[in-house]
Amino acid sequence: MSIQLIDHNEDLKKLKDEGYNISIINDNIVVKGIPYVNKEKKIVFGTIFCPFTLSGENKVLQQNHTVRFAGEFPCDQFGKEDKSYVNSPQTFPLTNDIIGNYYFSSKPLSGNYPDFYSKIKRYVHLLSAPAKSIDPSVTAQNFDFESYNEVSIFNYPDTNTARAGLTHISGKLKNQKVAIVGLGGTGSFVLDFVSKTPVKHISLFDGDVMYNHNAFRIPGVISEEELSQRPSKVSFLKNRYDNLRGGIMPYEVFIDGSNVKLLEGHDFVFLALDKAEAKSVIIDYLMTSGIPFVDLGMGLSVVGDSIRGSVRKTLVTPDNSSALNKIAIGQAADNDVYSQNIQISELNALNAILGILAWKKMNGFYISEETIYNSTFIVDEEEISNAT
């Protein structure tokens, strides 16, 4: 009945089509998820509701210009109570979960609003304007308001995911502990992508320092002054991404047989090493421990006055290691595939993206009818060869 009434009334349907969380509950028009500011100057979300009169079977009419509000006393962006439209505090239970705390009255010059659309939009604007002055991304439309104020690994709300309504999908990654081994060009891009997901913990493993050449193949920029201080890769990247989130743990070491157990307890590992020989002990440990991983690599060479080659990702899981032979391991591989050690930032980024896609598909973030365990992008042909 609720959906039918909304769809049969142009003003209500317009609110629904514009992305407002509108419903009809106990003979009241209810709109949830409206951002406003409380006295702590924090953005929170409230609900407005008002009764209607039914004319015939489907025509919904207003009773007056007022609404009730379930929430705290609305304030301006400085936390000062806004009494311009708050008529009085009144407790009015609509349901066990929706209890009106305040009675709002903002009467138009004409005396009445022409329809529910105009009325709801007016009260939404009054409530949300101070919130938008603090965070312009918050909205009452198509917004995952329930997750906005949750305790988060991020230093500020992830309104990108909330706006897209993808919090429940992104949440599939939430409690994971992820490791990135190798923080050069490809590994740094992996970190950039992983850092923007709600994983609980990101471990960074690399014993090298930042040099000038690293500045030209990592996301973002590093200043000349920072380079002169020769920070370790992992400490520099941790400090940079600490501005976004918590949970980043740097290890200024190269993984080998003496410390490979540092990977214990991780849910997924990204291997982005440029030395094939170092991979053998890591891969053996991950397979023995049942930890899924993706190995990322590229083989580029100069032909004439241009570059050609390929970019590869190989996924290995506890129940499928069919693509393991695609990973170059050992000193001979170092001397062959990586002899020129050419890396280009856009190919580093592409390599990282292939790995991120494999990881997210494995966790159900993206739909995948079958798992692709090996992908090779041929640069000159711009074709991807996949093996399932």
TrEMBL record:
Q: Which InterPro entries match?
A: DUF6791, ThiF_NAD_FAD-bd, Ubiquitin-activating_enz
Q: Does the keyword Nucleotidyltransferase apply?
A: yes
Tree of life domain: Bacteria
Q: Which Gene3D superfamilies match?
A: NAD(P)-binding Rossmann-like Domain (3.40.50.720)
Q: Which Pfam families match?
A: DUF6791, ThiF
Q: Where is the THIF-type NAD/FAD binding fold domain?
A: 172-297
User: What CDD domains would the database entry show?
Assistant: E1_enzyme_family
Q: Which residues form the DUF6791 domain?
A: 10-159
GO MF annotation terms: nucleotidyltransferase activity
Q: Repeat: is it a keyword of this entry?
A: no
Which UniProt keywords are present, listed alphabetically?
Nucleotidyltransferase, Transferase
Which protein is depicted? Answer: ThiF family adenylyltransferase
- Its source organism is Rossellomorea oryzaecorticis
